[in-house]
Hints:
four-stranded mixed sheet
Amino acid sequence: MQIKYLHTMVRVADLDKSIAFFELLGLKVTRRSDFEKGRFSLIFMAAPGQEDCPVELTHNWDGDEGLPSDSRHFGHLAYAVENIYDLCALLQANGVTINRPPRDGHMAFVRSPDNISVELLQMGDALPPAEPWVSMENTGHW
């Protein structure tokens, strides 16, 4: 029996903020479908060259009273990144809280505007420990 990964779906409250967050991670919109009758949109975003591994942002036009709730039960999205320190600095400069800083040069966690936990992992070997990350405490939960 064959199985093929299709996508991960997450519900989002503010579509523009969510798209902007995932664009900071380097993802691009690859496909969008708006469903007038159902009053929702599906936006697929993926890293360049990895369009077959998207995240699907589902946005209900009339709101979703359950958002933003703690989506930790969902688990998390995970992305390997070229330089975890540079990406965390970019995210932080754009108002994203680094919930679990990359103190080890290998792993960090952040949350999207809809409270979706996102794990960032350094590609290859961990980077040497560096400030300000080494001294930074966890913020909230991840």
